[in-house]
């Protein structure tokens, strides 16, 4: 299977911090020397990132709000494709995490819950839909293209304190399997990235960073392990504790889905 080392131009959505930022910079350092486009809402962070790594000349930035109105989001993606016609890979790392206690239903903030759903799942489905005409066209011309959704080990085994987050990641996990099977014939490769608990700003709102630090994989360790899987061209890229969960509950599911869909 082709791998990220074959990519000429990689867009990393949600790369102003955490996993997205770390993966974007690691992809930039690949020997194949791809162009990397960092993308997110926080323009000042993107500009700082590009300024820090301007020497390569291969790090670009695009400001994008994934929760933009549908037509505005479509227009933004069409502009990205027009600006970067060699774009052959999109990595979706944007996400938010909120806790909800359904034993106290009066405390459930549905606006917050629906924002989490939109950020972690609905917006990604929209963006994939808008990027696919370009990626399919390149694929049919013989150039492999890639979609890299970032789900979570919690998509396999949920944490009850963050039920909506786990549900959004489970939805993305299921979607990734279906798209991997559907798009294989179009030379568009869907590779799901499955992180464990990783050192990240994502968990800061819980005020439990010190406690979580006893369990999470450091960002450096996580990035190294994940990049090894991406370079190998693995169909799934779990890391840390997510590897065991994937092997126990998910291994072979993609192949079974492909057989069901009439693919060997």
TrEMBL record:
InterPro entries according to UniProt: NAD(P)-bd_dom_sf, Sc_DH/Rdtase_CS, SDR_fam
Pfam family, one: adh_short
Keywords assigned by UniProt, alphabetized: NADP, Oxidoreductase
An annotated Gene Ontology molecular function: oxidoreductase activity
Family: Belongs to the short-chain dehydrogenases/reductases (SDR) family.
PANTHER family associated with the record: 5-KETO-D-GLUCONATE 5-REDUCTASE, SHORT-CHAIN DEHYDROGENASE_OXIDOREDUCTASE
Name by which UniProt lists this protein: NAD(P)-binding protein
Classification of source organism: Eukaryota, Fungi, Dikarya, Basidiomycota, Agaricomycotina
